[in-house]
Specification:
Elements lengths: L1 H8 L5 H5 L16 H11 L8 H5 L8 H8 L4 H10 L9 E7 L2 E7 L6 H25 L7 E3 L8 H11 L10 E6 L12 H19 L7 H10 L8 H7 L4 H10 L4 H19 L4 H7 L5 H12 L3 H5 L1
Antiparallel strand pairs: 1-2, 2-4, 3-4
């Protein structure tokens, strides 16, 4: 969701591309969890006709707010060292898809970003966006902590641009002493920075958000390593609120012919209709248990044109009305 918002701010029209696969950007459900394979399918659509270098601009529009509990954990850490250790431990809770590590050398330390195969255009685009976002994140995080931003030397795993205009673009953002063609990306700074005390440190708040981050990690770990087709369809439909995509739109998003999708789901003793209904039931219970929405609002969020239709369906599923269930 934050990548999409960043692409919008960078002037890239992604809405029409996503609508082509049945996704409404403004109706994406922030509570949904999708498998990386489905995420990659969506990102392929997003990155069509977008050059990898544009990722430099896109990453600059990432926001601290997207890090949720992890952000609060970092700003309440006792030292920079502890904050960095937590970033690495809880990397799956960040925007980053690459592996993070720390490297020590000659009284210098680097936060390293180990990207996947950068020959692949999509991986290159993601790496460009994520590294630009990480550079901004480091600077904004220090400001939020009430600290001066340390001097950073940047090394990137990209080839030195032959175009002087693109090179100038990199230098304007990362600094003139940027180094290219490295095996992995690294943000270098003095090792002494690690022991700086964070003014906003709070031990009790730190423990609370450390627990929340652990809970989020467990929730992510519950995903199967290789999702079957039923799970991929379920995850895709779970991405959004309101009107649920049709089977044709779902097939297009998953890069599967509609006829093949129908057949493969039958082979798994399932169907698009069954998955769709099961998802609506799960979302209905989840929204009612939040106790933050009226029945009318829930009906609208689930794509029902009238609350009466939602009430009828809910009673058919669970044997009582939504209001009776909420009591």
């Amino acid at each position: 969701m934050y990548l999409i918002q960043a692409m919008r701010k960078a002037g890239i029209d992604v809405d029409q591309q996503l609508q082509g696969i049945g996704l409404s950007v403004d109706a994406l459900d922030p509570a949904a969890i999708i498998h990386p394979r489905l995420e990659r399918d969506v990102l392929k659509v997003l990155s069509e006709q977008v050059s990898a270098e544009q990722g430099l601009y896109i990453g600059q529009h990432y926001a601290l707010a997207g890090y949720g509990p992890l952000l609060m954990l970092l700003v309440t850490s006792d030292t920079i060292r502890i904050a960095l250790e937590r970033v690495i431990a809880y990397q799956p809770l960040t925007h980053l898809t690459a592996k993070l590590s720390l490297k020590f050398q000659n009284y210098q330390v680097a936060l390293c970003y180990h990207a996947d195969d950068l020959v692949d255009e999509l991986n290159m685009f993601r790496a460009q966006s994520e590294l630009a976002g990480t550079y901004k994140f480091i600077q904004e995080l220090y400001k939020k902590m009430g600290l001066s931003v340390p001097q950073l030397k940047v090394e990137l795993p990209f080839d030195l641009p032959e175009d002087s205009g693109i090179l100038a673009m990199y230098q304007a953002y990362y600094g003139s002493d940027i180094v290219f063609s490295q095996p992995y990306a690294a943000f270098w700074f003095d090792e002494s920075v690690l022991d700086i005390h964070i003014p906003s440190a709070d031990q009790m708040t730190f423990r609370i958000y450390d627990y929340k981050c652990q809970a989020e990690m467990k929730r992510l770990a519950q995903q199967s390593s290789v999702p079957d087709l039923v799970e991929r369809v379920h995850d895709y439909l779970d991405l959004q609120q309101g009107a649920i995509p049709t089977m044709a739109e779902t097939a297009q998003a998953l890069h599967i012919p509609e006829r093949t999708l129908r057949h493969q789901l039958q082979q798994l003793n399932s169907s698009y209709k069954q998955i769709r209904e099961q998802l609506i039931k799960e979302k209905a219970l989840r929204l009612i248990e939040y106790q933050e929405y009226t029945i009318e609002m829930i009906a609208e969020l689930l794509g029902y044109s009238e609350p009466a239709a939602f009430n009828h369906a809910f009673k058919r599923w669970f044997g009582r009305s939504p209001r009776q269930y909420s009591k």
